[in-house]
Design a protein that fits this description.
CATH class: Alpha Beta
CATH superfamily: START domain
Strand content: 25-35%
Shape: globular
Largest sheet: 8 strands, antiparallel
CATH topology: Alpha-D-Glucose-1,6-Bisphosphate, Chain A, domain 4
Distance between the termini: 36 Å
Helix content: 25-40%
Order of helices and strands: HHEEHHEEEEEEH
Length: 218
């Protein structure tokens, strides 16, 4: 949840990659419920975003898993995902993101968010708890608000020489009854993949800016 990326829309995506254990040591052990096929491994290595969904017949609730590579180290990705100001830049429909409470050691936080779909549906308001392991994982669950259920996990795995991140996302989402089925389906089908792509672009732009700053003559 980028502390914002995770619980932001009426649908979200979670990734757990096991089959990538061959290419990314350690991934399989922590993500054994999502074993990528050889074809999916190749897709991820080609910088595609792999998404799987297990939804109910109406396609408005269920579990989603996703995996992608980000051309930035875990420290950069984790930082971008845990800053509310950044979440507002790449999370569609997210209008409010603020911290209500944080642990002194930054191991957890309570985050308030609001999603605005415009005239399609009333604003969604909720508070989630995020448990944080720096540069490694973000586990989140709604503690109050409009969703019937909203919980999942982001996992960050160093890839290659540590300059790239294998980002895995898993989420179970059940939106409130007043969200129309077509809107929930549209979110799963279009907006969530776009959010993942925008998150990757944002993190890679951050990394490029840092690299240019380090390379600049002093």
């Amino acid at each position: 949840m980028r502390l914002g990326v995770t619980t932001k829309f009426a649908a979200q995506w979670i990734a757990a990659v096991a089959g990538l254990g061959l290419a990314f040591p350690g991934a399989a052990a922590r993500a054994a419920d999502f074993e990528l096929t050889p074809a999916e491994v190749q897709r991820v290595q080609k910088d595609e975003i792999v998404i799987r969904a297990a939804l109910d017949p109406s396609a408005r609730r269920g579990t989603v898993r996703a995996a992608m590579l980000v051309d930035a180290p875990p420290s950069v990705v984790f930082a971008a995902m845990t800053r509310c100001a950044d979440a507002l830049k790449y999370v569609p429909h997210l209008r409010v993101c603020r911290f209500r409470e944080r642990a002194p050691d930054s191991s957890w936080a309570l985050v308030e968010q609001e999603i605005d779909f415009g005239w399609y549906a009333p604003r969604l308001r909720y508070v989630f708890r995020a448990d944080l392991v720096r540069d490694q994982s973000i586990t989140f669950r709604q503690v109050s608000g409009d969703f019937k259920a909203n919980e999942g996990m982001w996992e960050l795995e160093p890839a290659e020489d540590g300059e790239r991140t294998l980002l895995r996302y898993r989420v179970y989402i059940d939106p409130p009854g007043y969200v129309p089925n077509w809107l929930a389906r549209s979110t799963f089908k279009r907006e969530l993949p776009q959010m993942l792509a925008d998150l990757r672009h944002f993190c890679e732009a951050e990394q490029l800016t840092k690299a240019q700053a380090l390379a600049a003559p002093r």
